[in-house]
Amino acid sequence: MAEALILDSEAINALANPTQRGALALRARAIARVAHERGALVRIPSPVLAEVSRGGRLDAPINLFLNRDIARVVELTRSIAQRAGALLAAARMSSTHAVDAFVVATALEFERALVASGDPKDIKRLAADHPQVSVLEL
Amino acid sequence: MAQAAEKLSISMPHKLASAARKRAGRRGLSSFVAKAVARELEREALGQFLDELDETLGPVPEAALRRARRAWPKR
Fold it and tell me: Which one of A32, A46, B20, B43 is separated from A70 by 20 to 30 angstroms, measured CA to CA?
């Protein structure tokens, strides 16, 4: 099974708008470069795509990024959804953190994964019992 | 919806073909090869995207790369 870099909303925005995101974009590019060195897949949990999509022309940079076929969107399957629920329960967190839980549950689909996040605190808490998932702040 | 499949005839070194058959099983070979090709195409596209950004915006600092390398879970 493969390794994956999982992008959260800040990471997608940084890579899709690299000229506008300064230091954040540099760090996101570094993380993506190391994923490339390792032969890791780049994946976007579908709920994260919902967070960064606003409709119409506002989505143009995101669509350009997605159309390059370098980062596939992972569908929210029944098993990922149920795993996310279990992660929330284990961490005693409410469903207001559902998107973070979907991110970690998606990461757990892979042998090893690194989550690139602009706000890693809750994701780290959800992934605490899973050493195969690391979280890196942008 | 599943995409229509196209039948290809390809050649590869005997040792590689044997290892692929052993790993995937004879019936799963097409799926195994398709996944490998998809993965390689993604990897090439990612490399090209990052090279373009390096050319237009300048290279990523080595310190940021080191930080990213340290962050991955151990193999």
Answer: B20
